[in-house]
Structures are given as C-alpha cells and as structure tokens.
Amino acid sequence: MKYVYPAVFEDDDGKIGVSVPDVEGCYTFGDDMADAIYMVQDALAMMLAHYEDNGTEIPKASDIKTIKSEGVVSYVMADTMAWRKANDSKAVKKTLSIPSWLNSMAEAASINFSQALQESLCSKLGVSLQ
Question: Which of 26, 41, 75, 76 is within CB 3.0–4.6 Å of 7 for a Cys-Cys bond?
Fold first, then answer.
C-alpha cells in the first residue's frame, strides 16, 4: 500500500526535525533535507505497516492547507510494501501437501520447491519479490 501524508520539517539544532501530525508518535530527524525526507518516509512506512498488521485503522491524511507551522510543510509518501521487502525478508517454514506423482515429477526436474512456491504466490498476488 502507498500512503501520502503532510509532514512538517523544522530546524532542530542544526538538524531537521520532522513530524507527521496525522500519525500519532511519528517523529524523526535528518542531517539535511534529503536525509530528513528519507527518514520520515521510513518511519511513516514502518508505523503504517504496524497498523496494517494489527488491524488498526489507518488515520486519514489532512489537507495540507490545514497544517499550521512555522516550518516547511510538504507531502511525503510511505510505501508499506516496499518497506516490508526491505525490512522483513526473514524466511518462514511452511508445511504443505502435494500429490506424490507431482512431487516425483518436480524432483526429477530438479525444481526448487521454495522458489516455485514464491513465484506462484507472487503471481497470484500480483506482487514481485524485488
């Protein structure tokens, strides 16, 4: 999922502090503007992935015109799927059953079962491993 929220960028003792007013507790900072944008996108994606995983309602994004701040207010994007791919790639073991004849044919063809299952799941879900 991709989300867009307004974020507030403010000077913070030589660093750039960033907050996302619509997502409680979403604060971070960066050494410069590029770093601050990267950091807030990462922090926001992590928090929203946690919301998704726990069935927590995703907060609605405010209209950027309603955000009052002396800092710079700009939209940032969070991509929870990209965040998961970058940060949650641990392997999990699954036990499954297939017909014996299919197992024999696949083994004879030297098919990697894990790879075949991953490819099939990605195809069915319309996602990629990268």
Answer: 76
